[in-house]
Amino acid sequence: MAEALTAAIVLAIFLALSWIVRRFITDIAPRLVSKTRSSIDDELLKAIRTPVQVLIIVAGVYFACNTLNGLSPGIVGAIDKLAAIALILVGAYLVSNIISAFIRWYVADVAPKTGSDLDDHLLPFLQKVVVVLVYVIAGIMVLDLFIEVTPLIASLGVVGIAVAFAAKAMLMNIFGAMAILTDRPFKIGDRLYLDGIGATDVEDVGLWSTRVRTMDGRIVVVPNEKMASSHIVNISQPEVKLRVQLKVRISYASDAEKACAILESIASGTPGVSADPKPRAYLSELGDFAVTIMLLAYVDNYDNDLSVSDSIYRNALATFKKEGIVIPYPTVNVRPRVR
């Protein structure tokens, strides 16, 4: 009875200690570091808050169990192994959180000052890789508590070849992600034209795949291997300007020069159309029943291509009607054959 009471007291002390530490990290420490210019201390406090509390609770449970005498050697050994497993996992949790905190701090405070956006996109990818590596090492350490892992690791050299063939697609996706982040054919937020999908906006570049959003709001997941090897049109680079091509057909009886001048004037006065280069209208085709005029204009931002085209077409329709320029439709003249 006395041993159980002692164990309860020990556990209560550690629970109280974990509560005190959490309150210190959550309420007191942020005020102490609030005057610093860097955000690294805030990120570190967030990173260690939960792991430290869990670590204290695990230590309390372990020491409380050790105060109980008369336990069989099997139970004592099981408690030691469980404590070791918990320590390894909590340690991996703590290390991954600290690494993530440093990377978040670098992306937020340092990367904007470097003048390059490579680290902005490469570091989050490396964060995912390092976190996975930390937990893989933790898993090996846990496995070492039960079996000898040295021969197992040595045998992985042979097994690795078979695994590499089996995981070929996964490895190609990882290498594809590295190629995307280092070569930078596109970045998050860019608008791409993908074969079979159409115009999309890049949402995220992950370890295995790239997520893009179509113009109708759907999320499409594309394997990185395909993204790295396919032909991609990046509409956002080297600038956000986009050339729109509009076609209008007028009758042969209408004044083509006047129609071209009207289209150029309408485009130049449309909000969102770039003044440099100026909109230009050309005769592009002499068809069976109509003359085709092609208007080329640059919009200031590719997001406005549809609204600008709509405005030009509406104004052209109204102005052509007012100026007597006819937009024809296909007609067929049928003449009866007289015998």
From TrEMBL:
Mechanosensitive ion channel transmembrane helices 2/3 domain mapped to chain residues: 128-168
Record localization: Cell membrane
Domain Mechanosensitive ion channel MscS: 171-236
Gene3D superfamilies to which the protein is assigned, alphabetical: 1.10.287.1260, 2.30.30.60, 3.30.70.100
Pfam families, sorted: MS_channel_1st, MS_channel_2nd, MS_channel_3rd
A Gene Ontology molecular function term of the record: mechanosensitive monoatomic ion channel activity
Native organism: Methanocella paludicola (strain DSM 17711 / JCM 13418 / NBRC 101707 / SANAE)
Transmembrane residue ranges: 47-71, 83-105, 125-146, 153-181
Domain of life per record: Archaea
Protein name: Small-conductance mechanosensitive channel
InterPro entries the record matches: LSM_dom_sf, MS_channel_1st, MS_channel_C, MscS_archaea/bacteria_type, MscS_beta-dom_sf, MscS_channel_2nd, MscS_channel_C_sf, MscS_channel_TM-2
Protein family (similarity comment): Belongs to the MscS (TC 1.A.23) family.
Keywords: Cell membrane, Membrane, Transmembrane, Transmembrane helix
Any one annotated GO CC term: plasma membrane
Record domain Mechanosensitive ion channel MscS C-terminal: where: 246-327
Membrane topology per record: Multi-pass membrane protein
